[in-house]
Amino acid sequence: MKSVYITTIVGEDSPQLIKSMAETTRSMGGEWLKSKVMKLDRQFAAMMKVTIEDGKEESLKAELEKTYPDLQFTYAPARTEDAEHVDTVSLTVDCEDRPGLTHDITKVLSDLNLHTENLEFHRLPVTPMGGTVYSAKMDVMLPESMSKEDLSDNLEAVSDCIRVNFD
Prior knowledge:
Blueprint: E1 2-12, H1 17-27, E2 31-40, E3 43-53, H2 57-67, E4 72-77, E5 86-96, H3 101-111, E6 115-126, E7 131-143, H4 148-156, E8 163-166
């Protein structure tokens, strides 16, 4: 029998850190089923869905914490699949920037009760127009009961100039 859990790791990045943690996990009999890593200004945050034989989970956690004492580790049980079938859709939202745009977009997603697996946004200056443009890339879990067009319509209602493109 296998144990499956999610570990979140935060700390200062260093060369070969992710590779080294993966090797430690494998040496203890564990495996990363899925991982997401983000790096910003020499800091990183990572989430891994880990599987390991029952009874070895605590040993792996202890080894990682001992080997990487400057990192912060948290753990959570892995969730089983949601009852309603979902597809993950990738999309980009582009428009003229304005204050509160990220808040308004995330409110739409929350009001629709959608889970966001990834959200990355940027504000970019456009000198000829004398302002900035906003661009958000996201991966959203879309249930069978909602179409891409429904999602797009709801997001486009946030502002007159929003353009939604699905990847």
